[in-house]
Write a structure and sequence with these properties.
This protein is α+β, with helices and mostly antiparallel strands and 218 residues long. It has one domain (3-217): 2-Layer Sandwich (60s Ribosomal Protein L30, Chain: A). It contains 7 helices and 6 strands. The protein has helices spanning 3-6, 20-27, 34-37, 73-99, 130-145, 189-199, 207-217; strands spanning 49-51, 56-59, 112-121, 166-173, 179-186, 202-203. A 6-stranded mixed β-sheet has the order 4-3-5-2-1-6. α4 (73-99) runs parallel beside α5. The longest helix is centred in the middle third of the chain and has 27 residues, at 73-99. The two termini are 26 Å apart.
């Protein structure tokens, strides 16, 4: 585990004993490269991640999928696949957000997951499948960080439950995609403060800070 996680307030009976990156590798999630993923905030209207000194980490939503959802099993499955894709993309974003500044943190320092929100595109007033579509996101998140609905759970139990979160899944939106999830996680306050003190509270990075961390890496 990361040194920040090891020194966190997690009680022994809830402490993770697996490496998150081992699960990421087994699931085939591509984390990309520093050069491709760590970008500039120049000209952006929103940030992808906001770090708070309390340890809360807010990830902006990302829309994806083939379009409007309706209550058909095949269509729901396509929505679930899209939600899983977004989870993979957010895990990648969070990885680089935690590691790019060299403060010593990574995904193993995620203590637990706080809250997820899934906005499911459907103008069908009789649509009931919003939670089912969002399950594609939640189950992938639990597969990586721990939870009874994840791929590494056995009979509904996992070694750790760091990926289980409070959640809302709401249908009734218009859009060219199927679902837009967002999520909040908790990291040790010491890591959050180190990130903020070193490079600020936002990711992607302001141009001057991107130049600095890129130079430090080289």
């Amino acid at each position: 585990m990361g040194s920040f996680y090891d020194n966190s307030i997690v009680p022994d009976h809830l402490r993770r004993n697996f490496d998150v990156y081992d699960r990421i590798s087994k699931l085939g999630i591509d984390l990309g490269t520093f050069e491709a993923e760590v970008t500039s905030l120049k000209g952006a209207g929103i940030s992808g991640i906001v770090f708070h000194e309390s340890g809360l980490v807010y990830l902006s939503g990302h829309g994806y999928g083939p379009g409007q959802m309706y209550d058909d099993p095949d269509r729901i499955k396509k929505g679930q696949d899209a939600a899983e894709w977004v989870a993979n993309a957010m895990i990648k974003r969070l990885h680089w957000g935690l590691t790019c500044g060299g403060e010593g943190g990574d995904l193993n320092d995620v203590i637990y997951t706080v809250k997820a929100l899934g906005m499911v595109v459907s103008t069908d007033v009789a649509f009931n499948g919003g939670p089912a579509v969002m399950n594609g996101f939640s189950e992938r998140w639990q597969s990586v960080f721990g939870g009874g609905k994840g791929e590494f759970a056995v009979d509904g139990e996992d070694q750790n439950y760091g990926g289980v979160h409070a959640r809302s899944a709401i249908g009734g939106f218009t859009g060219r995609f199927s679902i837009e999830p967002e999520i909040i996680v908790a990291i040790p306050p010491e890591l959050a403060k180190a990130i903020i003190q070193n490079r600020g509270w936002i990711y992607p990075l302001p141009p001057e800070m991107l130049a600095k961390v890129s130079e430090d890496l080289s």
